[in-house]
Amino acid sequence: MPLKLVTLISKKTFVNLYISANNQDFICNLCSLFVSLMTDRNGPICRLPEHLLVEIFIRLPICEWVQISCVSKQWASMFQGECVWQTAIARNWPSAGLRKRWPGPIPRGSARRRFQALYVSENLVSSSGDIDELVGHTYLYLKEQLERPAIPPSSILHGTIIDQFIACGRTGEKAHELASKIWLAVIDNLEENQQTFLLLKHLAQEGEFFLPFPYSRSYKVLWRVFDKLFTDLRDCFSRVDYHDALAGAKSRFQPVPSTWLGH
């Protein structure tokens, strides 16, 4: 891509900013200055045409996008549309645009949803270096289901995930492996608060479901539920609830780690 020169002029600032697809380090070094300029509602950047704004947006750290979208109604509208997200996908994951839609209960969704799924697959779910968009969508699906006021039984959620991967051509063994990785990733990325404590306590108290492979739940997942309860969220327990939960853990795992006992 040829270099484009964007000249930003204000009373105290004259910045020649070169933008190219291979110039990420330069963009990151100027990020702090750029964000301050971009959040100036009367600044020169606000007067740039939309196609240049999109090229600038997608080169800034994702953590800045929320702040940038609040600068003006126009910019908020751009992030609500498809163009920014489609361009970001094409830049970060060029091959993603070649993938066909898939069958099953978990849809692909909008360009914004696809960007979130690809980002999750790359950064939150370990998949041996491969970027699997379906893994990201499944992560988002499970996380949203667990955040609902009335949580569906975990066996239903687990079965839905398994069916989704099998419908897309994964073997039963691979579907079981991916489902376990997604459960672990979602649990590991939950905030440490009362809502998470109640969710994990609910999952720990659910009865065992004797289902055939690959629908059987992984012991790694149940172990992580108890581990997070007894380490990260231990202070949320009352004395009675703690001993009840510990008894449930001991009935499933022997021996239990000393950290679960408060040592």
From TrEMBL:
The organism's place on the tree of life at top rank: Eukaryota
Ranges of residues in domain F-box: 42-88
Protein name: F-box domain-containing protein
Record organism: Oryza brachyantha (malo sina)
InterPro entries in the record: F-box-like_dom_sf (IPR036047), F-box_dom (IPR001810)
Pfam annotation, one family: F-box
